[in-house]
Amino acid sequence: MTYTTPKTLTFPEFIQDYGDNPNYELIDGELRNMEPTGLHELVAGKVTARINAEILRLGYDWTIPRTCLIKPPATEATALRPDAIVLEDNKLSSEPLWSREPVITLGSSIKLVIEVVSTNWQDDYARKVEEYALLGIPEYWIVDYRSLGGIEFIGRPKQPTITICQLVDRDYQRKLYRLNEVIISPLLPELVFALNDVMPPV
User: Fold this and answer.
1) Is 68 exposed, middle or buried (0-12, 13-18, 19+ CB in 10 A)?
2) What is the pLDDT of residues 174-192, one digit of tens each?
3) For the residues of 148-191, what is the DSSP string, one character each?
4) Which burial class, exposed, middle or buried, applies to 144 when counting CB atoms under 10 A from its CB (0-12, 13-18, 19+)?
5) Which of 199, 201, 154 shows the shortest CA–CA distance to 180?
6) Residue 76's pLDDT is what?
7) Which of 18, 28, 92, 121 is exposed most, by the fewest CB atoms within 10 A?
8) Half-sphere exposure of 92 toward its Cβ, with a 13 Å CA cutoff?
9) Hey, which bits of 77-170 come out as E strands?
10) How far apart are CA 26 and CA 61, in angstroms?
């Protein structure tokens, strides 16, 4: 039996071959299939709709782009593709790649990032927590509607959970919300919804 090492990609190679493919992101040169399903996309769409409605209600100059990559400046071959990202419009003129590609490199452009957990849950609960904190992103939501995360992250018994990570100093402080619990977002304190509101139909 032979083992074949996965092909590694540079950031420019990834952009050229997979930049417009929403199924993939790049982590340390390794191509990752995000494994989206219809239910995953449904949950992501419901969460995004609620946030967008609140942004419009408040009249903020924030945007949720249809597709967007984050290139952490400290890593050469990483391109993260969040399920939703909230950008501050007046900061985008400082983004070096934005006029040519939907790529964000500066954490100061980002207000909020959301990941809906798939089977590669380790990335959402560990690697991306580190990357997003290093970028200084104020808030990061992890929506784990299938209870896929490890017990150390979502507790026992495992159950559907939204984790709201708020940046304090340089680290995220996490607060877990279960079904029937109204989430509290420091970024959008008047936003009212619970995980039940975005769960797929039974």
Assistant:
1) buried
2) 999 999 999 999 999 999 9
3) -S-HHHH-SS---EEEEEEEETTEEEEEEE-TT-B---SSSTT-
4) buried
5) 199
6) 84
7) 28
8) 19
9) 84-88, 103-104, 110-116, 139-144, 161-168
10) 29
Predicted TM-score (pTM) above 0.85:
yes
Reply yes or no on whether the pLDDT at 3 is more than 60. no
- Checking 10-16 for CB contacts under 8 A at 24+ apart, the result is 10/76, 10/77, 11/71, 11/76, 11/77, 11/78, 11/79, 14/77, 14/79, 15/69, 15/79, 15/101, 15/103
Torsion sign across C-alpha atoms 128, 23, 74, 85: negative
Here the tokens at position 154 are 């979502």
Q: Is residue 138 pLDDT above 70, yes or no?
A: yes
Dihedral pair phi/psi, residue 20, rounded to 5°: -105, 15
Architecture of domain 37-198: Alpha-Beta Complex (3.90)
Report the chain's mean pLDDT, rounded to a whole number. Answer: 93
Give the CB-side neighbour count of residue 89, counting CA atoms within 13 A: 7
Amino acid identity, position 160:
P
The single-letter code of the amino acid at 3 is Y
Angle at 156 between CA 153 and CA 158, to 5 degrees: 75
User: 10 Å Cβ neighbour count for 44?
Assistant: 20
